[in-house]
Each structure stands twice: as structure tokens, then as C-alpha cells.
Design brief:
heterodimer, A: 475 residues, alpha+beta, eleven-stranded mixed beta sheet, two-stranded antiparallel ribbon, 52% helix, B: 225 residues, alpha/beta, Rossmann fold, five-stranded parallel beta sheet, four-stranded antiparallel beta sheet, 9 helices
Amino acid sequence: MTLWKIALLVIVGLPVAVGVAWMVWRYGKIARRNMQQRAVASSLTCLSMALGVALMVLVMVIHGVTVKQFENDAQGYHLIVGGSKGGEMQLVMSTVFHLGKPLYPIPYSYYKKFLDDGEFAPYTKVAVPYCLGDSFQAGDQQFRVVATNADLFDKISYGSHDDGTPKLYEFQAGRNMKMENFFEAVLGAAVARKTGLNIGDTFQPTHGIGPAGDKHTEFTVVGILAPTGTSNDRALFANLEGFYLLEGHALAPEEDGSAAEADAPQESHAAQEHHHEETDHAEQPQPLPEAQREVTSILVVCNNSLQPMILDQRINKGKERIAQAVAPGGVVSRLLERFIGPVRVVLLVLTVLIVVVAGISILVSIYNSMSERSHDIAVMRALGASRAAVMGIVLVESILLSVLGGTAGVLLGHAILGLAGPWVEAHAGVSLKFWQFSWQEALLIPGLVGFASLVGFLPALTAYRTDVGRSLGGG
Amino acid sequence: MLLLENVRKSYREPDGTPLPILDIDRFAIGQGEQVVLRGQSGCGKTTLLNCIAGLTTVDSGRIEIQGRDIVGLHEVARDRFRARHLGFVFQTFNLLPAFTALENVLLGMTFTGQRTDPARAKQLLSEVGLGHRLQHKPAALSVGEQQRVAVARALVNRPVLLLADEPTANVDPGHQQQVIDLLRDSCRSEQIAMLLVTHSPEISSQFQRVEQLDQVNRTANSAAH
């Protein structure tokens, strides 16, 4: 917020706040007594206000948490590279959020361009391949299986802390997968919690996204990630090498087979010996030749903040046109703006309407009571209260009703968050806690004071216009 | 203390014709003087009190209280003057039902623009015999007790003039004298002038100065005739 806006807020807001505070201090006791006199009506109007405000709080907080979660998910890397057949939204949704259908894959050779002496290697710090398309069903819940390599958890962060330091993946149990052990897997925290899978357990990915596909070879769980608050909590990460060896995951080999062997990734002698020890003298399968491999997407971390733009240009405007590069942050922002934003506006409008209805009930309640109270008002006038004073008493009553209801609403909203949080987190992966606040809540109470002054104005005007002589009885 | 000169007040009939209520050439009360004003119902007693209190504006004339012409005052100043310098005891007590006896008396101090004095309020309530009923609301008080609270409220600011409009009309005969004695003794001890309106000959016979409203108010006189 700019300085002049703050100054304007203070210049206008401060006297108003002081004026309201003075009025409440001066006439608060009288207003409170009037509310107590009509305890049932006052309680009901407070309740209706509380319900409306609670809904507003829920919309504000849940929106804030959802937006933050979406934004968090898209952090840790500069670009996602995927097939050119398909939109950038689909690429981001399938890669970052594990939602929707993955794009058609790109050749493994394209991924190699980001490594060693490849065309894009000068711009690449880390490139992590993803293969998507399998899933794992546990009861009524379905989780995506992401085939990748150990670099995902060793070299890529999943966001930044408030002080700017990167958030690094940690394991609450076990360890990262070793690429030489083809059928190892790592679980996201939510997957482990919901499925009950633990270190040493095995699972069979299903081919395709759905329970009806063919079951693949078992993978062994070697690590369970600590919660990250991202979509990766709800995915299983299988060793890419093992994934390629599963039924239906390899391209057709070259006719003579020799080129396929020549393209197979070479392992060092030490690694081979290590394999031999690890697998307890069982026969280590051969890795799939590179010519038979494809990747669905690649997570790319560049060396500096300028290189993503260069890489973006070279990939999206390159001659081959078999891949596209997207900056996930921008796509997520557009997603939020296009879909989440309007939904939030609609929900907020609805909740504002509820609050308005509650405010009207305050107006009706106080206004209807004015005929009963005209005598009391006349008595106060006879005791020396000015017209402005009796008007102020009615306004303060309206303000107190709104603020009490609003405060109760804020507490109620947060109580609902606290109570429903665990269930929401279990089913939607969104973390909701009692103490999560949206900055817009700070505007609620001042807003209610202004709103209450508005709805209280008509009854207050009635008080102002009370004919003392007639109300007290003439003779 | 109180001086009315050439005071005229009329209301409008539904058809727009003026209905004269007050037509007073001159009426005065001295400092600390206790005056009874007698008259039939509907002859303008309450309207007169309301005009003196500044609750109703007059059409013309002068109303001076302690040398100050309240007719010329702005409404806000008139309200403040009434709060600080006048006490009013109503026929129907007019206690606020949501407030305790103590709070009703304090309400008499609330609009003076000065700090309320709970000690003074408690002292007054004790003097009228209600020291043990401070926290009781009007519904829990007898009629006589309610009227005593109303008297305490009227006296709490040490007014210069107390206006009492048929203060015993709703009090049972057994307690009416108590109320009158309370009013007279309180006003005498604090040198407060009192204008008491009643149609009761028993009450008016206790006062030294009794005015007939139809003598004071030419409109009442012409209405009577």
C-alpha cells in the first residue's frame, strides 16, 4: 500500500475510530442495557451476523490457503518441459499437481540435451525427468505414481522459507531411492499415512490412471518423505529405471537390437558390484536402452534467473517443435486468476449478502423496537439528553450488535477451520488450522462498524425525531 | 427564579386550525418558593411544564430561569440546561425498566456533560429510604418506591427548579403524603424552587401558594367558560 493511501486511511480513519470509540464509551452502558432488555432478539441478530461473518472468514482463509498451496506447489524449479501436443495448463496440472491426463511423451534423447554436453546443458543446473501415467489404488483413494530419479529429492527444493532459504526434501523414515536398485520407491507423506505402507512394504502400480488397469511388478518402499504441504505429499515416486522395465512402458526396440544395447545407460564397475551385493546375488535386470525410452516431462532448474527466458525461447521457438517449456509460476497465476479468483469473488459476494441480510435483521429488530422505546427515549430527552445523544445510543446499540456478532463469527469461523481441518487435510491435502488468518480479516470489524452505522441510521433517526411531549403524554 | 411573560403556545388541529393551549401574561416563582398549580385535566398543565422544561417550544414569549431566557437558546443548549438545572418528577415515574434504581438515578447525571457521581446517587437513594434497594430494577420495586427513585433522580443534580407533574396520581393514598413530604423537605433543605401541578385539593391545601391555572392561563380560562 502506498504512503499516501496509508496517510489517507489514518487521517480519515483515526477520527472516525476515535469518534466511534468515544460514543461507545459514553453510551455503551445504556445501549447494553437496551440490548439486555431485548435479550432474545439481540441474541438472534448477533447469531445471524456471526453465521454470515463465519462464512466470510472461511472463504477468505480457505482461499488464501489454497492459493498459497497452489503457489507453493509450483516452486523449486524454473521450467517444466513437456510434449508440444497439449496445453501448458495440462502440462502443469499433470506434472505439478498430479491431476488430469499427462501430455504425450517426448523422446529420452530430448531429455539428454539438458545433460552433460547437450544443447541445453549450459543453461541447466538440474534436469529431473518425470514419467507419468501409472497410479496406485488404496481403498477408495487413488494416488499418482511418478517415475523419476533420485535428483528430485537430492537436488531440487520445493519452495522457500520466509527468510529465503530453500525448503529441502527430508525423509521422515528411510532414505532416497538408489538408482542402481531399479524397483525402489519413495512415498509422499500423505500416501504413507493413508495407505499404511511403511519401509520395506511393496506395492504394485497400476497401468493407467484408474483402478482397472493391469498391475505392474512390485516396488519396495525405501523412504517416506516428511510432509511438504505440496502435491508431492500425495504421490508415489518410483525409480525411473524400474519404471522403464515395466510392461508397456518401452518403445519397440530397433530391429537388430544392437543399437539398443549400445544406447543402454552405462554403469560403472563399482556400481555393478554394488548392485550385486544389494540384490543379494539375485540377477540384476538390464536397464532399458535409451532408444526405447520416453519421458513425459522434465523439471529444469537453471543456473540463474535469466536463463529460463533463454531456454524458453530456444525450446518454444526451436526448429524441432517437439517440446514446449512453461514457467509453472506463471501458469499457476493464470489458473488462479481465471478460475480460483472468480470462484472466490462469487463466494465472497454470497457471504457479503448473508452479512447484509444479517444487518437488515439488526435494522428491522431495532426499528421495530423504536415504537416500544419511544417512551424511554422521551424520558432520556426529558432528563437532558440531546437529540444527537439518543441517536448515538441507538447507533451504538447497532454497532455493538454487529461487532459482537462479528467477533463471534470470526471465532466460529476459525473454530470450524480447526475442527474440520484434519478431515479436509486427509481428503484434499489442504492444510487448515485454527490459527490460520487472512489479512482481510483485519478489515472485518472496522467494516462491520461502518455497516452497523449504516443500518442503525434509520432507527437512530426515529429516535432523533421522537416527539417528547407526545411520547410522555400531554395534558 | 422562574418568570414567564407573554407565553403563547398552540397546537394544530387535523384540519390545520390552531388550537390555543397556553396564553400566559405573567407568571413567576421566587428562589426556593414552592408553588402548586391546580387545574382540570386537559387545561394545559403538562404543556406548561414541558414548555418551562424546554421540552416543547413556545410560539412566542419569554421563559426565564435563573435569569436565563431558555426560549432563545438553541435546542442542544436547552437540553443541557435542563439536564443541569431542572428536575422533573413525572406522573408515571418514567423510570427506565432495564436500569436498576441506582442506574436510573445516575441517568439523571449522564447528560449533564459532567462526570456522574455514584456516591451522590447512593446518598440520595439512602435519604429517600432506598439504600438497600440500589440494585433492584423498577419491576422489583413497589409503586411508592418507584416514585421515591424518581424523586431522587430529579434531585441528583441539585437543580434550581423542580417540576412535578401530578407526582402522586399513581401512588396509593396511603403513600401519597410520603411522596409530598419527601418533595417538600428535599426542596426546602436544598433551597430548590418547586412547581407542583395537581388537581388534588388535599395536596394543594398543604402549600402556601396555590395558583389556579385558569387564572394564570387565559386559554384555560376561556376553555373553562
